[in-house]
Amino acid sequence: MPTPPTLHFFCGKAGAGKSTLATRIAEEQGAVLLSEDVWLARLFGDQMKTFDDYIKFSRRLKKVVGPLVVDLLRSENSVVLDFQANTRAGRGWFRSLFEQAGSAHVLHFVDALDEACLARIAVRNAERPEGSHHLTKADFVHVSSYFEAPGEDEGFTLRVHRV
Q1: In this structure, are residues 13 and 117 in contact, taking their beta carbons and an 8 Å threshold?
Q2: Would you tell me the crossing angle of helices 51-74 and 36-44 to the nearest 10 degrees?
Q3: Three-class secondary structure of residue 158 per DSSP
Q4: Where are the alpha helices (DSSP H) in the chain?
Q5: pTM attached to this predicted model
Q6: How many CB atoms lie within 10 A of CB 137?
Q7: Given strand 158-162, what is the order of strands in its sheet?
Q8: Which of 19, 76, 81, 83 has the greatest number of beta carbons closer than 10 A?
């Protein structure tokens, strides 16, 4: 029996391994992978200097990607959306997408200790994969201050990955 079109999206601190997991799920599911970091780097890379720049350009990108995701899901394609779903308010956007499409969804919560995240960030800083940004420990602490783990009361199909 074929799997219904599903929207996969991710929650976890910087360096938790969300993008690595997203790539693996897309490969395993034969799904379309859309990466916020890659799109932002290609479209606005030279203009993104601060965290506020990221917020501004991320909002712009979502206005374009959102309808694309809905269309892909309605066309029977599963989508792996490697965009951060790290706040309750931010997860509302993802809900609007799978509800508009009438599709299944999975919120993947990548639960990692801060020390593990910082170690992965150090590797990423050295390797600099496309779309990555150099992060310091202070950057990690700042960005993590906004993080809100998903709660069962949010009503998502939740899969927790402890790493």
Answers
A1: yes
A2: 120
A3: strand
A4: 18-29, 36-44, 51-74, 88-101, 114-127, 137-144
A5: 0.93
A6: 11
A7: 32-35, 79-84, 6-11, 104-111, 158-162
A8: 81
pLDDT band at 161 (very low <50, low <70, confident <90, very high): very high
Please list the residues that pair with 11 across neighbouring strands. 109
Helix axes 114-127, 137-144, angle to 10 degrees: 130
Nearest to 151 by CA among 82, 97, 87: 87
74-91 pLDDT, tens per residue? 999 999 999 999 999 999
User: Given phi > 0 = left and psi -120 to 50 = alpha, else beta, which region is 102?
Assistant: left
Q: What residues does 62 pair with on adjacent strands?
A: none
Residue 112 phi/psi, 5-degree rounding, is -130, 145
Residue 91 contacts by C-beta under 8 Å, 6 or more apart in sequence? 11, 85, 107, 150, 154, 156
Q: Which two tokens stand for residue 109?
A: 């919560």
One-character DSSP codes across 139-157: HHHHHHTT-----GGG---
